């Protein structure tokens, strides 16, 4: 035991918040009260201790901290009474301080050793949750709680855990301790009369468990003083605190995965108790029940990172992982030696990045293997069994973390499928949930004839748009014709080369065959069907050339050259079609990317259903209305914003086409068309066809017009409505045209559209009459 040892940790720079006096009187009062009721042999002990205190004249008055050493015997008696009988002072962290003060004046050897290192210059300790000013506020809170409890019967100030960290010089890791003050031997007194507080309105003094400025004004601490002493015990809570760090990280840092894993690794390192070790985690992800190592979710695995950095054969890694999943167990590699290079190349990859030893532990979630916990070090001789044993309390949390990674990966795959491959979009998911719930209830109510309902949306505004590659069929025919010309020229040249090498009796037969080919292939110039041409070459021309090569080896050079070109669809006979397809793919990819990115803009206007279709260009359906998103009021302003978006997106589409093609590319252009339906429609999801369609005979006209309007001509002119560099807006009602003219005028002011506007009537289509159009040129 030692007297006069210093300060409560981290308080040596703090001024006291209240006048304090060391006194043994509260302690003797406590023993006197206990003596009155104590019936065991402790009563004799209490009596003997009180007699010792009565012999000391200072025991009934206040004692200066400088004089505390004169009462060493009394301090020993206090420790004897208050400490556990079996406590070892070399391990028990126990001390006495002035009440609510920073001064410690007596403590066990264990406490002395801790505090001396705490107050040294070499080792820095810190409160985990508090800066120094907050520590002072904590002391003030402590005092006000005593005042309100004793004089006003208000017990609303929250008590807080006091935790501080201390660097253990022995293992180089931080230890965490909880400070537990015992204030049974502290009395609070006041110098001046106390004011009355309105206890009916405690919010004036205490809010959210904290003291208010008003409380500090009406009850200044200068009017109070404390007498007695505080008993302080410290408990090492490092293991519990480490688990708490991991648990809080899982809750608080779900969005920031880097911070989450950093905190989890820190907690595991505290539990493991070895500064030379690090931790990694590898979730077992799968797609179609096949193991997958994802670059994101598996990036916290030291094994996967090492394997990829050293270009280790991933097939071997997958084989090793599948073998481990069949036999999951703790595996320890105390030294990663050369033998692992052939036996376990994935483990040897660790040595190549400086890791000398490694251990892996299987982690289960609800009895299912979800991944592994890795422990590794750049040193050998690491006690892995002990470390893994100490981190066992955190394994359920690690299991949850690995399961979260699996769930996140599965959700990403599911979202991609839903976004890219299915018609079901999140904005309408709620309606399908309702339909599914009704069906679920019917089934579980015993309805054997339960039928899945239909997800319908009434009174939605349909907005249709299309940007189409101009004359794509004609362009394909042109490309095919040029390639056929090239093919005929090639056949003519190679015919001469082959016949010049053949024996005289063979040449006429070959020439006759080539004449037949010329005649047959020439017919494909007008058909426009490249598939039939390829079929003819594969079934007629190429087999003949193979036989000719076998029977006339002297002509193998030109025969095989021609045969290879035809078999491989070489550039000599497909250059023009290849250039055309390349140009069309460039345009389609750019347009698809444009409208995919525009989805965000649309959702910012109002939640809507947006579905695009890839043809020779892109067309889309957009449905918006109150029934799509019942929680959000659909206003005319929303419809106006969608229509303006249509015009702007068509301008962007035309601009992309002009910019994306280079001079060497096949030159193409696009046309832009918008159809304005005169009224809202009803749509429903066709369960059999898995897509949305219109409801009702009158609404079906919308689908009919969509399918036919792109080929429509201007009345009495024979001119196609859709033209490159222009936007055509097809409508029925003049009121709609008037609105679109306003939108066009706005875009003209932005110099996106030309000043000239065409108003035209359209020819009648089958079952469709009275269509009109506005046509405007894009700048």
Describe how the helices and strands are arranged.
Layout: E1 2-7, E2 19-23, H1 25-37, H2 42-55, E3 62-63, H3 72-82, E4 94-97, E5 103-107, H4 109-118, E6 126-127, H5 132-152, E7 162-167, E8 174-182, E9 186-190, E10 206-207, E11 210-211, H6 213-218, E12 224-228, E13 230-236, H7 238-252, H8 257-272, E14 277-283, E15 285-287, E16 290-292, H9 302-309, H10 314-326, E17 331-333, H11 340-343, H12 345-351, E18 357-365, E19 368-377, H13 384-390, H14 395-421, H15 429-444, E20 456-469, H16 472-499, H17 507-527, H18 530-551, H19 556-567, H20 571-605, E21 609-615, E22 617-624, H21 636-660, E23 670-676, E24 681-686, E25 691-694, H22 697-708, E26 726-731, H23 734-749, E27 753-761, E28 772-778
Parallel strand pairs: 2-12, 23-26
Antiparallel strand pairs: 1-5, 2-3, 4-5, 4-13, 6-7, 7-8, 8-13, 9-12, 10-11, 14-19, 15-16, 17-18, 18-19, 20-22, 20-23, 20-24, 21-22, 24-25, 26-28, 27-28
Describe this structure in words.
It contains 23 helices and 28 strands. With about 775 residues, it is of the alpha+beta class. Strands 20, 21, 22, 23, 24, 25, 26, 27 and 28 form a 9-stranded mixed β-sheet that branches. A 7-stranded antiparallel β-sheet has the order 1-5-4-13-8-7-6, sandwiched between helices. It has a 4-stranded mixed β-sheet with strand order 3-2-12-9. The radius of gyration is 43 Å and the shape is elongated.
């Amino acid at each position: 035991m030692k007297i006069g040892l210093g300060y409560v940790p981290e308080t040596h720079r703090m001024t006291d918040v209240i006048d304090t006096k060391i006194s043994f009187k509260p302690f003797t009062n406590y023993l006197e009260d206990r003596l009155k009721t104590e019936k065991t042999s402790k009563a004799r002990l209490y009596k003997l201790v009180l007699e010792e205190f009565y012999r000391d004249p200072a025991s009934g008055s206040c004692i200066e901290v400088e004089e505390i050493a004169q009462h060493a015997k009394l301090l020993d008696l206090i420790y004897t009474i208050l400490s556990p009988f079996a406590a070892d002072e070399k391990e028990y962290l126990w001390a006495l301080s002035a009440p609510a003060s920073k001064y410690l004046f007596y403590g066990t050897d264990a406490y002395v050793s801790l505090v001396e290192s705490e107050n040294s210059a070499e080792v820095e300790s810190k409160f985990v949750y508090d800066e120094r000013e907050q520590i002072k506020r904590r002391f003030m809170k402590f005092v006000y709680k005593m005042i309100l409890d004793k004089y006003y019967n208000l017990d609303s100030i929250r008590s807080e855990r006091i935790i501080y960290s201390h660097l253990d010089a022995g293992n180089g890791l931080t230890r965490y301790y909880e400070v537990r003050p015992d204030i049974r031997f502290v009395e609070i007194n006041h110098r001046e009369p106390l004011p009355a507080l309105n206890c009916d309105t405690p919010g004036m003094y205490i809010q959210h468990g904290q003291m208010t400025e008003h409380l500090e004004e009406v009850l200044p601490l200068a009017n109070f003083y404390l007498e007695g002493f505080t008993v302080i015990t410290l408990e090492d809570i490092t293991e519990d605190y480490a688990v708490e760090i991991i648990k809080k990280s899982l809750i608080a840092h779900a969005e920031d995965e880097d911070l989450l894993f950093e905190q989890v690794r820190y907690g595991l390192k505290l539990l493991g108790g070895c500064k030379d070790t690090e931790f990694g985690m590898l979730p077992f992800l799968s797609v179609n029940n096949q193991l997958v190592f994802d670059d994101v979710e598996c990036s916290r695995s030291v094994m996967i990172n090492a394997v990829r950095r050293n270009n280790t054969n991933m097939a071997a890694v997958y084989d090793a992982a599948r073998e481990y999943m069949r036999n999951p167990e703790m595996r320890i590699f105390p030294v990663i030696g050369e033998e692992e290079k052939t036996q376990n190349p994935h483990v040897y990859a660790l040595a190549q990045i400086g890791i000398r030893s490694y251990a892996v532990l299987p982690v289960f979630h609800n009895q299912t293997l979800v991944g592994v916990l890795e422990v590794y070090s750049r040193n050998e001789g690491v006690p892995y069994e002990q470390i893994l044993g100490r981190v066992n309390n955190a394994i359920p949390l690690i299991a949850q973390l690995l399961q979260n990674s699996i769930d996140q990966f599965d959700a990403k795959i599911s979202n991609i499928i839903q976004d890219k491959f299915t018609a079901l979009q999140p904005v309408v998911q709620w309606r399908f949930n309702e339909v599914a719930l009704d069906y679920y209830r019917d089934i579980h109510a015993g309805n054997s004839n339960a039928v899945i309902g239909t997800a319908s949306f009434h009174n939605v505004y349909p907005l249709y748009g299309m940007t189409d590659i101009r004359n794509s069929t004609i362009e394909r025919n042109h490309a095919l014709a040029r390639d056929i010309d090239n093919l005929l020229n090639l056949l003519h040249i190679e015919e001469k080369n082959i016949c010049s090498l053949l024996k005289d009796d063979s040449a006429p037969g070959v020439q006759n065959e080539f004449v037949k080919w010329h005649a047959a292939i020439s017919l494909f110039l007008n058909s426009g069907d490249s598939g039939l041409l390829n079929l003819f070459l594969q079934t007629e021309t190429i087999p003949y050339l193979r036989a000719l090569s076998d029977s006339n080896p002297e002509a193998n050079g030109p025969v095989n050259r021609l045969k290879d070109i035809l078999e491989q669809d070489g550039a000599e006979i497909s250059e023009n079609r290849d250039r055309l397809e390349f140009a069309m793919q460039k345009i389609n990819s750019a347009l698809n990317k444009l409208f995919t990115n525009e989805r965000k803009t649309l959702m910012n206007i109002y939640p809507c259903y947006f579905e695009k279709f890839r043809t020779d260009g892109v067309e889309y359906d957009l449905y918006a209305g109150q029934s799509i998103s019942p929680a959000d009021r659909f206003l005319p302003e929303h419809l106006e914003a969608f229509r303006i978006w249509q015009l702007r997106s068509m301008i962007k589409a035309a601009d992309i086409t002009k910019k994306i093609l280079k001079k060497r590319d096949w030159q193409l252009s696009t046309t832009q068309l918008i159809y304005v339906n005169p009224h809202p429609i009803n749509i429903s999801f066709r369960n059999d066809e898995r897509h949305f369609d219109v409801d009702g005979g009158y609404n079906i006209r919308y689908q009919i017009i969509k399918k036919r309007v792109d080929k429509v001509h201007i009345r009495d002119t024979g001119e196609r409505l859709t033209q490159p560099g222009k936007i055509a807006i097809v409508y029925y009602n003049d009121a709609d045209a008037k609105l679109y003219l306003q939108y066009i005028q706005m875009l003209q002011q932005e110099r996106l559209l030309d000043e000239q506007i065409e108003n035209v009537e359209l020819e009648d289509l089958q079952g469709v009459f009275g269509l009109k159009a506005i046509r405007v040129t894009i700048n």
